[in-house]
Write a structure and sequence with these properties.
This protein has about 350 residues and is α+β, with helices and mostly antiparallel strands. Helix content is about 45%, strand content about 15%. It has an eight-stranded mixed β-sheet.
Length: about 350
């Protein structure tokens, strides 16, 4: 099975709704109403608070639509509500509130601010996959790998989700999660009756501190975070994300629907930001090459850098990041009291 995924765009929404309405969970969670879902997705697509990806199988002559997975960054107030009984289906409630003008999904500005300071709560939002595909281990592994890849680099403080598949919830519980259910707060699923329990509204939650204690678990990798240092603009980040796929400037222009000269101007702006960050990415050897080779070398070094530092491709306010870094440095430099020094000593 050869899989690929790409960001969802407005033309994918109808197919997404069609796939989700065919899934048993749709009737369980969304009261069989598809039009509110369609309207909400059209509103959310393209925003920083909602990232959705279309999965396709490419073995045949024509790509086969397999479904859509999404993440949403939620407000702290709404997240607190999800942890109080009576519990509710989060996707359906997001849609209801969004369509009444009370969306719990963070705006672009709010995502940028939270990602640069206190951190984000991410909701894993399955938007419908074909049941037959979900029985394939290869496909499930691809979904998990994609989720981890796409949330790496964000400053996460909590993961929340809802799953009706017992194996998936058990994997989360083994990775530092806790489960809020109608039967109370659980750290493991009961030996019997787990499917019936998950068929009712519930919540799976993983906090950063708990995840980081489970070294080697999938949850650990999404909470490890290093603050951005360069501060690329949104358009520069988009260009870099597409360039990581190996596209030429001409292909970048087609994909981003801009001119080739605009692509070259964007690269020039990117190189300027990298220079000002003074991270030594370019080094001294680039100056000894010809102008054409110099540009290629700069591009290769920038792409090599951001490939291993996904935080540079996430929404960020560099002023807030630097302010938080300075605050941390001040706290570190504060003199400790004799009592505190004694308590911090090794036994």
């Amino acid at each position: 099975m050869t899989l690929r995924y790409r960001p969802m765009n407005p033309t994918d929404v109808n197919k997404c709704v069609e796939t989700l309405t065919a899934h048993p969970d749709f009737h369980l969670q969304y009261d069989s109403e598809s039009e509110p879902l369609r309207r909400a997705l059209l509103h959310l697509v393209g925003s920083e608070g909602f990232r959705a990806y279309v999965f396709e199988e490419t073995d045949g002559k024509k790509p086969r639509h397999m479904g859509v997975g999404a993440i949403a960054f939620l407000t702290d107030a709404f997240t607190a509500e999800t942890k109080r009984a009576p519990y509710f289906w989060i996707g359906a409630e997001i849609i209801r509130r969004l369509l009444t003008g009370q969306t719990p999904v963070l705006s672009d500005r709010q995502v940028r601010a939270a990602n640069s300071s206190e951190g984000l709560t991410v909701f894993a939002w399955p938007l419908g996959f074909r049941s037959d595909d979900c029985r394939e281990a290869e496909f499930l592994n691809a979904l998990m790998g994609t989720f981890i890849y796409e949330v790496r680099g964000y400053n996460l403080k909590e993961f929340i989700g809802q799953a009706t598949v017992v194996e998936g919830v058990r994997a989360s519980l083994n990775s530092g999660a806790v489960l809020f259910t109608c039967k109370g707060f659980l750290e493991e699923l009961p030996a019997s009756g787990a499917e019936e329990l998950l068929a009712q509204p519930h919540l799976v939650s993983i906090l950063r501190a708990a995840a980081l204690k489970h070294v080697g678990a999938w949850s650990t990798s999404i909470f490890v975070h290093t603050p951005a240092r360069i501060g690329f603009s949104h358009s520069e980040q988009r260009l870099l994300q597409v360039a990581l796929e190996g596209r030429t400037d001409e292909e970048l222009a087609d994909e981003l629907e801009i001119s080739v000269s605009a692509v070259k101007k964007a690269w020039s702006s990117i190189y300027g930001r990298v220079d000002r960050a003074a991270l030594g990415i370019f080094g001294d050897s680039i100056g000894d090459t010809t102008p054409g080779d110099r540009g290629k070398e700069k591009k290769q070094r920038v792409l090599a850098y951001v490939r291993t530092r996904p935080e540079e491709l996430r929404p960020v306010d560099l002023k807030l990041v630097n302010r938080a870094r300075e605050q941390l440095a001040r706290e570190y430099r504060k003199p400790q009291s004799p009592a505190r020094q004694f308590m911090d000593q090794e036994p």
